[in-house]
Amino acid sequence: MKEVAIFAGGCFWCMVQPFDQYPGILSVISGYTGGHIENPTYEQVCSGVTGHTEAVEITFNPEIITYNELLNIYWQQTDPTDAFGQFEDRGDSYRPVIFYTNDSQKELALKSKQALTESGRFMNPIVTTIEAAKPFYKAEEYHQDFYKKAPNRYHLTHQNRQDFIDDHWKESF
After folding, report:
1. Which of 15, 54, 59, 168 could disulfide-link to 26, CB 3.0 to 4.6 Å?
2. Contacts by 157-165, CB closer than 8 A, 24 or more apart
3. Span between the terminal Cα atoms of the chain, in Å
């Protein structure tokens, strides 16, 4: 059994490893979604003219790891109060979005966002959007599994995110 989840949470380099480590995850692919041209390149997406967001497409076995569990992992990788990017990555292509692929995912995402809002964990409003999935385009090969290919660079780019996670997610919600 397979299902797909699509999450945007800033630079896709930093969004692969958190999901990649769990049983039931079949693949985590870096790519682009939500835009208006087919098969965009990294340079086009970074220019801001395509409307795409960097995201990860996670194929998973829901009998081993549930969509709710993926949502909990997702929330703990992002700053859900920052609509204009994530950490040092700024702009629309880095905005936080949960892209749902079916009505069940939409309902679960809305409920998890509400639970996070009601938890009082953040002083500012939760601004992560929940949107219907659009075509997902795999990013260039050098972006795939970046944390494995360039661990030193990955840790440098991930440090601000990790500091935020350590400050805000000592306990789950």
Report:
1. 59
2. 157/11, 157/13, 157/14, 157/88, 158/13, 158/14, 160/87, 160/88, 161/10, 161/14, 161/77, 161/86, 161/87, 164/79, 164/87, 165/76, 165/77
3. 28
- Residue pair 115/146 in contact (Cβ under 8 Å)? The answer is no
Is 98 within the bounds of a domain? yes
For residue 66, being part of any structural domain is answered with yes
Please report, for the domain that includes residue 26, its CATH number: 3.30.1060.10
Structure-token match 């692969």, residue found: 16
* Amino acid, res. 105: Q
Give the domain range for residue 42.
Answer: 3-168
Catalytic residue annotation: 11
Q: In the chain, how many domains are there?
A: 1
82 vs 167, more confident: 82
Q: Strand, helix or coil at 55?
A: strand
Q: Quick check: is 173 in a domain? A: no
| pLDDT, tens only, 89-104 | 899 899 999 999 999 9
